[in-house]
Design a protein that fits this description.
Order of helices and strands: EEEH
Strand content: 5-15%
Number of strands: 3
Helix content: 10-25%
Distance between the termini: 45 Å
Strand order of the largest sheet: 1-2-3
Radius of gyration: 16 Å
Length: 82
């Protein structure tokens, strides 16, 4: 096996009432205004043709095979105040 590093960085415009909170394990997540929580993480997408529509899979085994390859995951959240 060879090592693959994937870095994902998003810049988003979000409502002012969203907050950063931590889970009991210290993982940062977003608290939305409606009381729900949001964690942005990797979701593998698949396609039979790279020029066609990409989608997640209903095949739990295929999804688990990909996720089992992940050695670590790091997501950082930061609100930018102007």
């Amino acid at each position: 096996m060879k090592k693959l590093n994937v870095t994902i960085k998003l810049a988003m415009s979000v409502p002012d009432d969203w907050e950063l909170v931590e889970t009991s394990e210290g993982t940062p997540v977003l608290k939305l205004a409606d009381g729900q929580f949001l964690d942005i993480a990797i979701e593998p997408l698949f396609a039979s043709d790279p020029e066609e529509t990409w989608s997640s899979t209903e095949d739990e085994d295929a999804l688990n095979d990909i996720l089992d390859m992940v050695d670590s995951e790091e997501v950082a959240y930061e609100f930018v105040v102007h």
